[in-house]
Amino acid sequence: MTYYSLSDYLKKTFGTKVYKISLSTGCTCPTRDGTKGFGGCTFCSAGGSGDFAAAPEDISIQIQKAKLRVDAKFPKKTPVQERKYIAYFQSFTNTYAPVNVLKPMFMKAILQPEIAALSIGTRPDCLPDEMIDMLSELNKIKPVWIELGLQTVHEDTARSIRRGYELSAFESAYSKLKTQGLTVIVHVILGLPGETHDDMLETVRYLSRLVPVLDGIKLQMLHILEGTALGEEYKLHPFHVFSLEEYCSLIADCLKLIPAQTVVHRLTGDGPKRLLIAPLWSGNKKLVLNTLHSYLRQV
After folding, report:
1. Contact (CB, 8 A) for 151 and 158
2. Which of 24, 31, 249, 264 qualifies as a cystine partner to 37, CB 3.0-4.6 A?
């Protein structure tokens, strides 16, 4: 089975290997600061889905430190001056602050010559018009990707994980972002409590029918982590989690639905091993990816 992978897209777009470096704006989330709740989404750790991101300090310093962490991945023959990176603002909700606070941070990153693009993780309900206008301005300098944490299209599940917004908020934000010419990548979590195989496919099917066609999708396996509300729920009332074989089969079914031009940014994901409660097999990233790729070659 073939699909449009992120590595293929990056080579086609930038002509070379490009690696993400995780940065932080220092923003929080409306489900954490009391605006829409406290504690965040039930699956979200204290790191805000950015457990490997940089500490919130000056962006230039963050970039330099983050580059050192990923430089070993480049082919040895790649000169330092030719290495390219995507500045990934990952932790929490990176548009949850005034434009005049965020614009200097994003501008400082995008003007770095080694930065090929910005990727900004956020929520659909944290994109007021003035924020989208600012992101559109930046997009004229270098590509700007907006990563939206949708997770599921099912409202009952969304309420149970304390997502804090309805599907209509996603639809409105998606339309506005695409009207402004921004690249949109949507995060989906597979394995949320109470969702069936068909429920998960319905989320992917919905995204596959979006107009304009979705630019990118991240398929993220649910990691149950220590220190989260979901982790406490699982300890008290364990629910089904995927076996590796079940997950491979689900991913294959998802990929069958995704349009050929939509970039698949992720087939699984990393949960910090020190916090991982379940599924424990997901802590072996090499095993997971090798098994997934082997399975997909056979279907």
Report:
1. yes
2. 31
